[in-house]
Design goal:
mainly alpha; two-stranded antiparallel sheet; globular
């Protein structure tokens, strides 16, 4: 059990039996009377004054509301930029549809890599709270510069751009300044992402039965807040950007994000702050295990030597890491290089990678909702009444609406039913939840392919194949089933992945766990961009009258073929996922 701040151990804490729980799920004790004061103290956490955190005055939902409120503001700001980004790149910066899709995917992929840097800084140096504040300030700076780049003097005319079908072309400086601001924004978004969600979950003590259930519920309502901010941005800001002013549409997110940071700071007195339990960085410990195991690669210790002091089931997985227990001369003894706890930490992280890799099919599909789905909507009939067309980017809000409607049903109805049947606090296991969403995502991709086939047939029937600027007489509501299914699948898979990667890593690496989850989505965007580039080269387009799958004229393109490829990849990924998930060993011990 970890000591208190400064390495001292409280006499009251000696009363707790480390690693055990009582029949009510609370900390186990050595017998005798129970002390209310002891039960009120949250081990391993301090309050804003640096004293022991008390369950009655810190953490829990009272703190989580500030964190979720901040996330609502941040998602409003983020999707206020991201949702309509592809239209800004094509309409204002003069990029082609496939080039704009690649730009969006590359930016998003980079954004999802940044949580690794943020997690390293948070877990090893600054802590989550300070990292959140610093990256939020970078975020606000990026939004401000992005707004400035949009309101620069109007673009100048260019003969080259007119050849490409655009009447105007922005100066190189404006383009470079725009992308500089966009990537600075991405650093802030990504660096903050790893810390904020883990910090919110830290407000619940997983060793307390009631707070453990609340923590699982927290991840559901976290996504609810994400969807609330997303819907507001996609509905309101998309309209402002397309019909009023891009500068105003990019400036509002900057203001909202600033208010979100102030809200987060208001909750500072209620938060629980984790104590640093080890002198060495968790990354240093895991790296040392890897190096020690590599040095002892050729050693052949006995089975008892290799795994006798480790958890019995754990010792049978990733056996090569057990060799880090050996001393430098290859024998087990006091001179060994790593502790059993260090090896458990390394194994806990290593076990995540097969699960994450098999979820890449899902994340590739996830990247489509803000790119090709949006461009499809542009070509379809979006009129609600004469003279009023809904923005194509606002269609993404239906994905959020589906999630907002389904989350209360899942959290308040399905989870309690599942809890009664299985006895598990969350109703079903995290891996079962992830797999359910992956299945729905594959189905949604198949539906998207069928709808696109219908759209192409409608365009051909009405002689609109070579008239890309004419609206195809097919209501945009045809796209709703795929958006709704994606929204529901995210409630399963996205929340499941976030909770899984947070829960299954050592306590000091929880920011890193959330960062690994974000990395999966980043790699999915990079792979989507790679697929687009490879398929574009393979199918041609633009040369000699040949039309490829990603032709700028979507009536000549074949996005339906691309969607079927993604549906196939999703199915293969699901099969591989089920194979690794059935043998996964949950980290049930507290690694501290």
């Amino acid at each position: 059990m970890a000591g208190t701040a400064g390495g001292l151990r409280s006499p009251l804490l000696e009363y707790i039996v480390d690693g055990s729980v009582d029949r009510k799920g609370g900390p186990g004790t050595s017998g005798g009377p129970r002390f209310p004061l002891l039960e009120d103290i949250v081990d391993g956490s301090v309050d804003h004054k640096g004293g022991p955190a008390k369950r009655s005055t810190s953490g829990g939902w009272r703190s989580a509301y500030f964190v979720i409120g901040n996330e609502v503001a941040e998602r409003f700001a983020y999707f206020g930029i991201q949702a309509n980004l592809i239209n800004y790149l094509t309409d204002r910066l003069g990029q082609s549809v496939p080039a704009a899709a690649e730009s969006v995917n590359t930016w998003y992929g980079t954004l999802c890599l940044m949580p690794l840097l943020g997690a390293f800084v948070a877990d090893s140096f600054l802590g989550r709270y300070a990292t959140i504040i610093i990256t939020s300030l970078l975020y606000i700076l990026g939004l401000g510069l992005l707004t400035l780049s949009v309101v620069l003097p109007p673009p100048i005319h260019s003969h080259d751009c007119q050849k490409g079908g655009n009447t105007t072309c922005p100066p190189h400086f404006q383009i470079n300044f725009f992308f500089f601001s966009l990537y600075l924004l991405g650093i802030g978004v990504g660096g903050r992402k790893a810390g904020i969600q883990a910090f919110g979950a830290d407000q619940f003590d997983g060793r307390n039965h009631g707070e453990r259930i609340a923590k699982s519920s927290y991840f559901n309502w976290w996504l609810f807040g994400v969807y609330a901010g997303t819907i507001a941005a996609q509905s309101v800001l998309s309209y402002i950007q397309e019909n009023l002013n891009w500068g105003l549409g990019f400036g509002i997110p900057c203001i909202v994000m600033t208010l979100g940071l102030l809200l987060f700071l208001l909750g500072s007195r209620t938060y629980r702050y984790n104590l640093k339990r080890h002198e060495r960085s968790p990354f240093m410990r895991i790296g040392q295990v890897s190096i020690a195991a590599a040095k002892n690669w050729l050693a052949t210790p006995s089975e008892d030597t290799a795994g006798g002091s480790l958890h019995q089931q754990s010792s049978q997985q990733s056996k090569f890491l057990n060799k880090a227990l050996l001393a430098r001369d290859g024998s087990k003894g006091n001179g060994r290089q790593c502790s059993t706890n260090d090896i458990e930490e390394a194994k806990a992280v290593l076990r995540l990678f097969p699960i994450g890799a098999t979820c890449l099919g899902y994340t590739i599909v996830y990247a489509q909702s803000s790119t090709f789905f949006t461009k499809q909507g542009v070509t379809m009939d979006r009129s609600i009444r004469p003279g009023f067309d809904i923005p194509a980017a606002s269609l993404q809000s239906f994905m959020g609406m589906a999630g907002i409607l389904f989350i209360p049903i899942y959290d308040r109805i399905l989870v309690p039913i599942g809890r009664t049947i299985t006895g598990k606090p969350s109703g079903i296991t995290m891996l079962q939840r992830i797999g359910s969403g992956m299945f729905l995502s594959a189905i949604a991709m198949g539906i998207a392919a069928l709808v696109e086939t219908k759209r192409l047939e409608t365009a051909q029937e009405h002689g609109l194949v070579d008239m890309p600027n004419v609206t195809v007489p097919m209501k945009v509501w045809w796209l709703l089933p795929q958006y709704i299914l994606f929204g529901v699948s995210n409630v399963f898979t996205m929340v499941g992945l976030e909770e899984f990667f947070y829960d299954q890593v050592p306590t000091e690496l929880r920011s890193f766990g959330v960062a690994l989850c974000q990395l999966i989505f980043g790699l999915g965007s990079f792979l989507s961009s790679f697929l687009i580039s490879a398929i574009k080269k393979a199918t041609g387009g633009g040369d000699g009258g040949q039309h490829g799958w990603f032709d700028d004229n979507l009536n000549r393109a074949h996005l339906d073929y691309y969607y079927w490829v993604l549906a196939g990849l999703s199915a293969v990924g699901l099969i591989l996922y089920l194979y690794f998930a059935q043998s996964y060993l949950y980290n049930r011990r507290s690694i501290s």
